[in-house]
Design brief:
alpha/beta
Length: 174
């Protein structure tokens, strides 16, 4: 099983749109996939109990999305030269030994600028490696994402679509 994480709590983001395209691509090739939009954390995550390893809501997220997934696919936007704090907050609140250790992951960076969140991808890679996750070397930075996806959630640029398909193919083989 793969868990796909839309790494922002912004419900109407370019990240969410791109993650939905990945989700559909996985379904199209009959891969069992869980979709976790971090927007579900908006009403809960920031509270004083979240770091308690017995926190029921954090454990429920871990049990439902991470425990039985061998692979994780992160789609993360660029926020202030890195990735969103809500994703780091989730990782910090989870029991990483139980939910993250020894999994495989791929990262897709999203930005409206030119670099496709390369710096944020590097930051997230370091954190994931610290939690004993093996990160696929082929990352996919998607630059100018606001110009890449149309209103029907399709790629305007065929080269970007092909890059996503190649990235996904390599991730499935990873």
């Amino acid at each position: 099983m793969i868990t796909l994480i839309a790494g922002t709590n912004n419900k109407n983001s370019h990240t969410e749109r791109l993650a939905r395209i990945y989700h559909q691509a996985l379904l199209d090739v009959n891969v069992e996939v869980n979709y976790l939009s971090l927007a579900v954390l908006n009403q809960y995550i920031i509270n004083e109990d979240m770091y308690d390893k017995n926190d029921n809501k954090i454990n429920l997220i871990g049990d439902n999305y991470f425990l039985n997934s061998a692979k994780l696919l992160f789609v993360v936007p660029e926020y202030n030269g890195s990735f969103p704090g809500i994703l780091k907050l989730l990782i910090d609140a989870m029991d990483v030994k139980k939910y993250l250790y020894f999994k495989k992951a791929a990262i897709v960076g999203v930005a409206t600028g030119r670099a496709g969140n390369l710096r944020g991808i590097d930051h997230l890679t370091s954190i994931l490696q610290h939690t004993k996750i093996t990160v696929m070397p082929h990352i996919l930075p998607v630059s100018s994402v606001h110009l890449e996806i149309d209103e029907t959630h399709e790629f305007k640029n065929e080269r970007t679509k092909m890059a996503l398909q190649l990235h996904l193919k390599q991730f499935l083989a990873f």
